[in-house]
Design goal:
The protein is an alpha+beta fold. It folds into two domains: 158 residues, Lipocalin (Beta Barrel), CATH 2.40.128.330; 123 residues. Helix content is 61%, strand content 10%. The protein contains eleven helices and seven strands. The chain has a seven-stranded antiparallel beta sheet, covered by helices on one side. Helix 10 packs antiparallel against helix 11. One of its GO terms (molecular function) is magnesium ion transmembrane transporter activity. InterPro entries: CorA_TM1_TM2 (IPR045863), MRS2-like (IPR039204). Keywords: Ion transport, Magnesium, Membrane, Transmembrane, Transmembrane helix, Transport. It comes from Flemingia macrophylla.
C-alpha cells in the first residue's frame, strides 16, 4: 500500500503483460523513484492531485479522452508533460509519475510499443551517480534528467513518423507536380507558343493603324501627350533591342544554312566520285563478261568439222576477242567523258 492508500505493484518491463488485463481502468500509473525503480499504481484523479499538488485543470490535459495540444507546464512542485503518447508528471519529492497508456488504448495498455522504450530509458538514466560526482556538480537534477528522456523519446517518435510520411508523400507530390512540369517543359520547347505569350509585341505591331486617330484626340492634352511621348521613347528603345536581337538571330540562321549547304556539297562530291568509280567497274565487268563468253563458246567439246586442222585459229580468236573488249571499254569511257558523266 502507498502512503495515500493507493495500490502499488512493482513494475517489471518483461512481466507487464500479466498486469495488462488487471489494470484496464483509466487510473493506471507507473511511479519511478530516484533509483530508477518503477512501481505500478492504481490512482484516481483526486489521489494524484493530492500526491503531486497540482490543480484539476493541469491534470485534465493528461486525459487521452480530451483533445489537448502538446504542452509542457511548469508548476510550483511539478512539471506536467503532454507529449503525444508520453504523459508524465515530474516532481522533486516523488520524482516522476508517467502515464504508460497511449491515447488510442485509453490508458489501459502499459506494454504499448511506443511507451516501453521510454520506461526502459527512465530506469537506466534516472539512478544518481556517485556522491563525489554529485558534489562536484557533474550530474543534472532529477527533473532535468527525466525531462530529457521524455524529450528524446518524443523526438525519436516524431522522426520515425516523419520518415514514414515522407515515403508516402513524396511520390504523391511528384505525381501532382508532374503535370505542371510537363506542361511548362512543352511550352518552353515550343518557340511559337513562347512568342504568342508576348502580348505587348503583338499589340504594338497592330497599333499603327489605330494610332493615327488617337494621336489627334490626345493632342489637346499636353500631359497625356508627354506620357505618350515617354511611352513611345521607351517602346522605341525596346524595339531597337528587339531589332538587334532579330538581326543577330537572322545572321546566325544564315550562317547555319550556309554551313548545311557546304556540307551537302561535299557529300554530293563524294557521292559523284563513288558513282564514277562504279561506272568504270561496271564497264570493265561487261567487257570481261563478253570476253569470257567468247572463250567459253569456243572452249566447248562440241564435234564439228572445222574444228579439225585449225589449231592456229586459237591465238587469233583470243587476240581478236581481247582487242575487241578493250576497244569497247575505251569507247564506253570516251562516251561517258563526252556526255559529262565522268570528270576529265
Amino acid at each position: 500500500m502507498a502512503r495515500d492508500g493507493s495500490v502499488v505493484v512493482p513494475a517489471d518491463p518483461q512481466g507487464m503483460t500479466v498486469v495488462k488485463k488487471k489494470t484496464q481502468s483509466s487510473r493506471s500509473w507507473i511511479l519511478f523513484d530516484g533509483t530508477g525503480q518503477g512501481s505500478l499504481l492504481d490512482l484516481d484523479k483526486y489521489a494524484i492531485m493530492h500526491r503531486v499538488q497540482i490543480h484539476a485543470r493541469d491534470l485534465r490535459i493528461l486525459d487521452p479522452l480530451l483533445s489537448y495540444p502538446s504542452t509542457i507546464l511548469g508548476r510550483d512542485k511539478a512539471i506536467v508533460l503532454n507529449l503525444e503518447h508520453i504523459k508524465a508528471i515530474i516532481t522533486a519529492e516523488e520524482h516522476i509519475k508517467a502515464i504508460i497508456t497511449a491515447e488510442e488504448v485509453l490508458l489501459r495498455d502499459p506494454t504499448d510499443e511506443n511507451v516501453i522504450p521510454v520506461v526502459e530509458e527512465l530506469q537506466r538514466r534516472l539512478p544518481r551517480l556517485s556522491d563525489s560526482n554529485q558534489q562536484q556538480g557533474d550530474e543534472s537534477p532529477f527533473e532535468f534528467r527525466a525531462l530529457e528522456v521524455a524529450l528524446e523519446a518524443i523526438c525519436s517518435f516524431l522522426a520515425a513518423r516523419t520518415t514514414e510520411l515522407e515515403v508516402a508523400a513524396y511520390p504523391a507530390l511528384d505525381e501532382l507536380t508532374s503535370k505542371v512540369r510537363d506542361e511548362l517543359e512543352q511550352l518552353l520547347d515550343d518557340d511559337d507558343d513562347m512568342a504568342d505569350l508576348y502580348l505587348s509585341r503583338k499589340a504594338s505591331s497592330s497599333s499603327p493603324v489605330s494610332g493615327l486617330g488617337a494621336a489627334n484626340w490626345f493632342a489637346a492634352s499636353p500631359t497625356i501627350g508627354s506620357k505618350i511621348s515617354r511611352a513611345s521613347v521607351t517602346t522605341a528603345r525596346f524595339d531597337e533591342n528587339d531589332v538587334e536581337e532579330l538581326e543577330m538571330l537572322l545572321e546566325l540562321r544564315e550562317y547555319i544554312d550556309d554551313t548545311e549547304d557546304y556540307i551537302n556539297i561535299q557529300l554530293d562530291s563524294h557521292r559523284n566520285q563513288l558513282i564514277q568509280l562504279e561506272l568504270f567497274l561496271s564497264s570493265g565487268t561487261v567487257c570481261l563478261s563478253l570476253y569470257a563468253l567468247v572463250t567459253s563458246i569456243f572452249g566447248m567439246n562440241i564435234p564439228y568439222n572445222w574444228n579439225q586442222n585449225h589449231g592456229y585459229m586459237f591465238k587469233w580468236v583470243v587476240t581478236v576477242t581481247g582487242g575487241f573488249c578493250a576497244l569497247m571499254f575505251l569507247m564506253i569511257t570516251v562516251y561517258a567523258r563526252k556526255k559529262g558523266l565522268v570528270g576529265s
